[in-house]
Prior knowledge:
The structure holds two protein chains of two kinds.
Chain A: E1 3-9, H1 18-23, E2 28-36, H2 43-64, E3 72-79, H3 82-93, E4 97-100, E5 109-114, H4 120-131, E6 137-143, H5 147-163, E7 168-173, H6 178-186, E8 191-195, H7 201-206, H8 209-216, E9 221-224, H9 227-236
Parallel strand pairs in A: 1-2, 1-4, 2-3, 5-6, 5-8, 6-7, 8-9
Antiparallel strand pairs in A: 4-9
Helix pairs in contact in A: 4-5
Chain B: E1 24-25, E2 29-31, E3 36-38, H1 43-60, H2 62-70, H3 74-98, H4 105-113, H5 115-150, H6 160-177, H7 182-208, H8 227-236, H9 243-248, H10 256-285, H11 288-294, H12 298-343, H13 362-378, H14 381-409, H15 425-439, H16 443-463
Antiparallel strand pairs in B: 1-2, 2-3
Helix pairs in contact in B: 1-7, 1-10, 1-12, 2-8, 2-11, 3-8, 3-10, 3-14, 3-15, 4-5, 4-14, 5-6, 5-12, 5-13, 5-14, 5-16, 6-12, 6-13, 7-10, 7-12, 12-13, 14-15, 14-16
Amino acid sequence: MTRTLVPVAILEGESVPAGLAELLEPTDVTVLGYHVLPEQTPPDQARLQYEDRATDALEDLAREFGAEEGTADYRLVFTHDAEQTIERVAADTGAGVYAITGATGPIDRLLVTLTSDVAVERIVSFVAELIGDREIGVTLFLATDDESAGRELLETAAGPLSERGIDVRTQLSLEEPPLEALIDAAADHDAVVMGEQAPSLRTLVFGEAAERVAAESFGPVLVVRRLEGEDEREAAGSSSLSDGRDE
Amino acid sequence: MGDASPPTGGTNVEGETPRIEPTVETEEATITDEAELERTLGLSGGLAIGIGTMIGAGIFVFPGLAAGNAGPAAAASFAIGAVVALLVALPTSELATAMPKSGGGYYFISRGLGTLAGTVVGLSLWFGLVFATAFYLVGFGYYAVDTLAELGITVGEGLVIPTALLFGAGFTVLNVTGTENAAKLQNGVVALLLSILVAFLAYGGLDAAGLIGDPAAPEQFAPFGAVPVFSTAALVFTSYLGFAQVATVAGEMKSPGRNLPLAMVGSVVIVGVLYVVTVFVATSAFGSDRLTELGETAMVEVGRHYLGTAGAVAIVFGGLLATMSSANASVLSTSRAIYAVSRDALLPAGASRINLRYGTPHVALGLAGGPILVLTATGRVELLAEVASFLHLIMYGLICVALLALRRDEPDWYDPEFRVPGYPAVPVLGAICSFALIGFMQRASQLVGVGIMLLTAGWYFYYAGDVELRGNL
């Protein structure tokens, strides 16, 4: 079963909408409570002061995600760098997906965006697992400038979903720029599923696409993690993360 | 290190016990029962702390003073300092990889030698860092006044101390309220500084060696004899105080077994080479008399000698950056040193409180900033530097002793990833040299240093006599 990581800035009063817990019900969930400290503050010093409060809040959250049924647990991390912590815990727990929380009520329809450079198959099989036999519709979205190849990709991806009795629509966008088209489309949906992009100059300048979508739309965004990264990490052992990510 | 530590650590006079919990250290995080602490500093971050703390004093404040005391042989004084620093950096590296926790030298000594030594070192480290920071700030004040002079505004030396005080207060406030990531800024400042210095020293070195430009006036290497070479080494040892600050962030270093030794030894080697070359270049430009006359900012005139106004501006700018980065890095280390002793119930727990608004340790930062301003106001550069060195050297000597003690017993938990080469010669020599350098200091500095140690020992007997820290991980 896929595990979803739900990072929450636990002491900043960030809450998780009920709709997200409901949407993620079929998957295992790890709630990652993190607290970012300025570099003047040793993480251990913050832990001594805030551990109890953070643990209480996390226990409540984990219960919403099904801790009592055994499908959810939590981790508490004090850190100077949230992104590094999310990466590490995702790899550590084997989470294939992480969630960017956003406000949402009951979920009726998901926007699933496909990009040619992110494994379509894994995204589709995660969506199938997530929906199960629930009454949640799917819109497959693809932004491309190659119309015929785009249609073909959408049809291939829609096949296995409709076979499972899921209500699938497709939307092909030839408009530029693709991200803005995606954000427009997200407005009519309750949550977005997308693949994590390889880091590029564009993501360095503008931030990860998933974060931009989450910022522009109100609903939660589920990000299917890249596999290449995991492979590298497994091959090189857990100790070698250090240098590429130097401050 | 997860095995059952002694059940109690004793209590201090207020009934507080050391807050010690079993932890599991991995390459990327420290894992306690309920939470994880992310390790976020890489090798470059560690080097930036070490180099950033050290470089301000050695290059931009001391060359004039040192050359005045020892002549061109001041280069040898800096080299002696580097050797002593290395003899201590290696044992410190071993202990840091065995106990990668915040607190650095204090932590190793309290665990290896017990609470009395720990209290004296922990509290002396606080004062040592306060003296060092005041020294950096006064240096900063001189450069600020010189910067104005380069810009054509002559304000005179009367403004040195007020400027230093203003910026000292500014750093403290910024550290309490600033939540921006200044680590990246610090790395950038250090990289920029190194570039300026390497370019300047390469040109000056070629010139001084007689390969380009006018041949330099030769001067006798050690015009004042051998003793001043050693006493100058004791004075300039303040330029090497930064490497152990790397150990105060040991708990936040990624892959500590590899990065801690590399960062400590690497930063000592890098700054040591730069110092020796700097003094060579400076004494080739001017005679010792002239350098003494030029004082704290002699390097500015050295820059002007080799590269004209551009050289002077580059050095003034570098000096501002360097003294600022040293002062700021030391304020941060001071706050961590206070946290480490307060966690162990040697100071009231309130000293390590974090404020909710900014998430910063405002009490500890205040306990750093207040005394720093008082000392800065004295403006006594040499005294400040020597007392700082005195208190650090005591810690360095005891670090070596702690290593010897731990190696002799080898408790179960003691499993360093890095083992010091040349054991036991290196730690024995490190301890002897550290204590010997103290002997070469001025009487006034020795008295102030001993006074502070007696005070801290008195505090131990009054406040924390029952606290048990030895082997209590």
